């Protein structure tokens, strides 16, 4: 499907054009307006396919990439990828619109928008890729581009540290995921996700099935900031607010959620999958909401709230995997509703959390601080921003009339229903699911009240603010207002979203179920007085009590000493690895060139000679060798004499002349072996290099004898003998190794293969063309680096701003 490929490639193309066009574009208009057109156009293009996707259609197209390894660029648009594609482009459009008014023109905007488009293209590649290797490539590109975005204000130490932590943890998870993908390939024989899903019954009994499951989940957990990998997300809040609103509410952190949803048809129904996904999700939900209450920075509070909400969505997908265990039946469809609630809350979270991040950015932009202890009383000065905070905060707390209430009620229904499941021995622990969910929801209500109350109510503390706050300009308010419209609109018209967006996504998660309409419940705001409603009322009542008595019980957080936190252990691990690597490096990086050659040669001998000795690769058969003539022996002795004399030479000129003797002797051997073209090449190269070296060395002082101990001298002799013996051993083994057909037989047919009658010229000009092309690519990259350093230097005002 050309549209999906266009959607993936367009952000990359525009990102490549920005460094070339930004100087001209800024004279016409703000660079952000040009960038805004990219996600907006893509959103409209994807939206055109919503009716067809709702009818159950999927769009697949394969572009051959490395077919010999079953790696093809296959794009796949179905209900699940459509949700994420719309979020990436839709929220991306609003974030870019917000950034136009949020970021100063003195910032390095061309870098910012280039990184943002790179990330957007990478995320679209993740959700639209059917091939595991292509998906992994885009997956790691999201880590690289997010690293650049988080470290955008690289003059800040905290920004660099946050970017490094995010990349370290997510790349570690990505490597784990890659190992899981390779195991799936071994088990299934294909890299195609669709084919793996179709043959899941065959691969479930494979010994690598469970290890692949665990490794893929590690990748998903690290990217989606699940416990205990959640520690990178709060530090990533050092990024500009548009980055936080985009990466950490709607896109990057949802990549792990997407991975779990996409692989639910493969691993769903396995006890290991159910317990890991649901329990880790619930623990993350509780731990994130519990820690959000103690935060004094608004973005840190939202960071932990994001961790909590991601845990909620993850747990729902874990609970929904029970549906794969039972299969399609009228009395078990109830258990699939957890996945429906996960998809619903996925969209809801993107709307209210995006609006809240933008709201916090507005407060920081207009008041000069995000510190709750310095804020208060902003409601009268910033009424529109206050309204955005109320809508987003109440939706996150799960209150009506906002969309978060609907999905939170479904969450309570799912954790209550799981108690009746007989599989996986849930009955014994089933009661813990609703208890943990309810307690975590209470803390969610408390931190939502802190967010709203401590920022907008109370006494205005102008003496603690850097500037007098006022309402933000309309351009900055427009994006969060649009998101708030969705927050309210979805509450009143949820079933349109359910039919056109959520139902086809459910068909992607449960592809073996014949009826998708039964998987999509009719969404009601009022179900009467039931257990879910009573749980919500309990959350509100207990939450208000805890919020009012916050000062009396908040000291309980001191029970958890700072030295025992996950961040502390991470910092200790990084410090230990840096100190250990520094000690190891200082041991071998002595600054002595002789030592470096010793390392290289010892490793060479140990690896090559060791392999030949301990394998059966050594094969000598001198019977077929031709006889050695007298003049050949004379040449060998001349080379030996020159090599030995070179060691004892006291002048550079003498050593260079002796080195030339070696080179010319090799040329004579080429003549003897009837390779005149190689002999001519050797003679030309040797003559030029010898002349150049003599010209340079003539003006250098004479060589000074090394003052080294006899032990050192003898070690050099021994190493030299072993290196020479190894090279000789390899040469003889290669000449006499006859287990495989010589490669020369392939090149004998050079005329038909490449149209050249000279086999040597054909090898150099045609068969090595790919190698030559790579060499040209290396030169191109070096040229681009030189061009970048010389032509794209930062402007003086940008340098002054950073300083």
From TrEMBL:
Domain (MrpA C-terminal/MbhD) ranges: 638-701
Subcellular location: Cell membrane; Membrane
Origin superkingdom: Bacteria
Keyword Cell wall biogenesis/degradation found: no
Occurrences of domain NADH:quinone oxidoreductase/Mrp antiporter transmembrane (ranges): 129-420
Entry coiled-coil feature ranges: none
MrpA C-terminal/MbhE domain: residues covered: 716-797
Protein topology in the membrane: Multi-pass membrane protein
Segments forming domain NADH-Ubiquinone oxidoreductase (complex I) chain 5 N-terminal: 66-113
InterPro entries per record: CPA3_Na-H_Antiporter_A, MrpA/MnhA1/PhaAB, MrpA_C/MbhD, MrpA_C/MbhE, ND/Mrp_TM, Proton_antipo_N
Keyword tags: Antiport, Cell membrane, Hydrogen ion transport, Ion transport, Membrane, Sodium, Sodium transport, Transmembrane, Transmembrane helix, Transport
Transmembrane residue ranges: 6-22, 31-50, 79-100, 112-128, 134-154, 166-188, 208-233, 245-261, 273-293, 300-320, 340-363, 375-397, 431-453, 474-493, 523-547, 596-614, 630-648, 655-673, 679-697, 717-737, 772-790
Matching NCBIfam families: 2a6301s01 (TIGR00940), PRK12645.1 (NF009285)
Family named by the database record: Belongs to the CPA3 antiporters (TC 2.A.63) subunit A family.
Protein's name according to its UniProt entry: Na+/H+ antiporter subunit A
Species of the source: Lysinibacillus xylanilyticus
């Amino acid at each position: 499907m050309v549209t999906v490929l266009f959607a993936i490639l367009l952000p990359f193309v525009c990102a490549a054009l920005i460094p070339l066009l930004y100087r001209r574009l800024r004279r016409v208009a703000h660079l952000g307006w040009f960038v805004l057109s990219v996600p907006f156009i893509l959103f409209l293009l994807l939206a055109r396919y919503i009716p067809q996707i709702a009818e159950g259609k999927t769009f697949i197209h394969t572009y051959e990439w490395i077919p010999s390894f079953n790696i093809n660029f296959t794009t796949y648009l179905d209900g699940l990828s459509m949700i994420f594609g719309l979020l990436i482009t839709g929220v991306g459009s609003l974030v870019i619109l917000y950034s136009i008014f949020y970021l100063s023109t003195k910032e390095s905007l061309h870098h910012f928008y280039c990184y943002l488009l790179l990330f957007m293209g990478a995320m679209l590649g993740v959700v639209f890729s059917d091939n595991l290797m292509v998906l992994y490539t885009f997956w790691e590109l999201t880590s690289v581009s997010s690293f650049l975005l988080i470290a955008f204000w690289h003059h800040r130490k905290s920004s660099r540290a946050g970017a490094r932590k995010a990349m370290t943890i997510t790349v570690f998870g990505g490597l784990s995921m890659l190992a899981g993908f390779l195991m799936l390939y071994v088990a299934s024989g294909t890299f195609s996700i669709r084919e793996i899903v179709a043959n899941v019954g065959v691969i479930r009994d494979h010994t690598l099935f469970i290890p692949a499951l665990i490794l893929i989940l590690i990748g998903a957990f690290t990217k989606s900031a699940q416990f205990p990998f959640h520690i990178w997300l709060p530090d990533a809040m050092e990024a500009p607010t548009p980055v936080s609103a985009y990466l950490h509410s709607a896109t990057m952190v949802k990549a792990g959620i997407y991975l779990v949803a996409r692989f639910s048809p493969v691993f769903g129904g396995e006890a290991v999958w159910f317990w890991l996904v649901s329990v880790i999700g619930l623990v993350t939900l509780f731990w994130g909401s519990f820690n959000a209450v103690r935060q004094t920075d608004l973005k840190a509070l939202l960071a932990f709230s994001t961790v909590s909400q991601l845990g909620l969505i993850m747990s729902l997908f874990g609970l929904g995997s029970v549906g794969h265990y039972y299969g399609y039946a009228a009395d078990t469809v109830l258990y699939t509703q957890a996945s429906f609630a996960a998809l619903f809350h996925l969209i809801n979270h993107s709307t209210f959390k995006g609006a809240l991040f933008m709201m916090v950015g507005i407060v920081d932009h207009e008041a000069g601080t995000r510190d709750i202890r310095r804020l208060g009383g902003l409601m009268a000065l910033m009424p529109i921003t206050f309204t955005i905070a109320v809508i987003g905060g109440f939706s996150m707390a799960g209150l009506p009339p906002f969309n978060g209430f609907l999905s939170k009620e479904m969450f309570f229904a799912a954790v209550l229903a799981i108690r009746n499941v007989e599989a996986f021995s849930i009955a014994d622990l089933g009661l813990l699911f609703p208890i943990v969910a309810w307690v975590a929801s209470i803390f969610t209500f408390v931190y939502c009240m802190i967010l709203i109350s401590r920022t907008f109510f109370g006494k205005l503390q102008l003496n603690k603010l850097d500037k007098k706050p006022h309402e933000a300009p309309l351009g900055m308010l427009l994006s969060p207002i649009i998101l708030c419209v969705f927050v309210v609109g979805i509450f009143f018209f949820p079933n349109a979203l359910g039919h056109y967006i959520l139902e086809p996504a459910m068909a992607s998660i449960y592809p073996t179920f014949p009826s998708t309409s039964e998987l999509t419940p009719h969404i009601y705001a009022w179900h009467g007085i039931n257990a879910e409603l009573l749980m919500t009322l309990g959350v509100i009542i207990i939450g208000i009590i805890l919020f009012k008595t916050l000062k009396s019980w908040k000291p309980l957080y001191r029970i958890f000493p700072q030295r025992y936190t996950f961040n502390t252990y991470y910092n200790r691990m990084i410090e230990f690895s840096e100190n250990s690597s520094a000690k190891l490096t200082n041991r071998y990086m002595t600054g002595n060139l002789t030592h470096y050659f010793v390392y290289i040669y010892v490793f060479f001998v140990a690896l090559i000679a060791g392999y030949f000795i301990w394998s059966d690769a050594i094969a000598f058969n001198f019977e077929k060798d031709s006889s050695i003539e007298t003049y050949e022996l004379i040449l060998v002795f001349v080379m030996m004499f020159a090599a030995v004399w070179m060691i004892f030479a006291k002048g550079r000129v003498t050593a260079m002349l002796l080195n030339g003797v070696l080179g010319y002797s090799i040329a004579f051997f080429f003549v003897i072996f009837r390779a005149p073209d190689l002999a001519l090449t050797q003679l030309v190269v040797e003559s030029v290099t010898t002349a150049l070296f003599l010209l340079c060395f003539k003006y250098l002082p004479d060589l000074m004898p090394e003052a080294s101990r006899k032990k050192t001298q003898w070690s050099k002799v021994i190493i030299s003998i072993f290196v020479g013996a190894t090279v000789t051993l390899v040469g003889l083994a290669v000449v006499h190794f006859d287990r495989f057909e010589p490669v020369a037989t392939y090149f004998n047919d050079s005329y038909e293969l490449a149209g050249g009658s000279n086999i040597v010229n054909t090898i150099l000009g045609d068969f090595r063309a790919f190698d030559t092309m790579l060499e040209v690519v290396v030169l191109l990259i070096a040229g681009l680096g030189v061009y970048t350093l010389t032509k794209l230097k930062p402007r003086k005002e940008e340098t002054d701003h950073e300083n």
